[in-house]
Design a protein that fits this description.
alpha+beta, 1 helix, 95 residues, five-stranded antiparallel β-sheet
Length: 95
């Protein structure tokens, strides 16, 4: 398989990035929280992941992550083999 077969779509990247950002927000980082009436966001990181073939485990679709990198203004590192993205697809096609 060529490397082009392992390129994430914008939708796949968004799902993986949202999971990573959410998991980082659970820790105490010393940053003040925004007020309840106003949601603020800021750039966290760019991520490039290497993935293996999608595995269909009905009703789940599993996309194994085999490595990669991420980098942002205050955060950078490498993605290790062993993670992945799991999507549950309903019979009506919604994930």
């Amino acid at each position: 398989m060529s490397r082009a077969d392992h390129v994430l779509s914008r939708r796949q990247f968004t799902k993986l990035g949202a999971f990573g950002a959410a998991s980082l927000s659970f820790g105490s980082n010393g940053m003040s929280q925004p007020s309840a009436d106003r949601l603020e966001s800021q750039f966290l990181l760019d991520m490039q992941l290497d993935i293996a073939d999608v595995q269909a485990l009905s009703p789940r679709l599993v996309t194994p992550v085999t490595g990669g990198t991420f980098k942002g203004p205050r955060l950078q590192g490498v993605a290790l083999d062993g993670g992945g993205d799991w999507l549950i697809r309903r019979p009506d096609g919604v994930g």
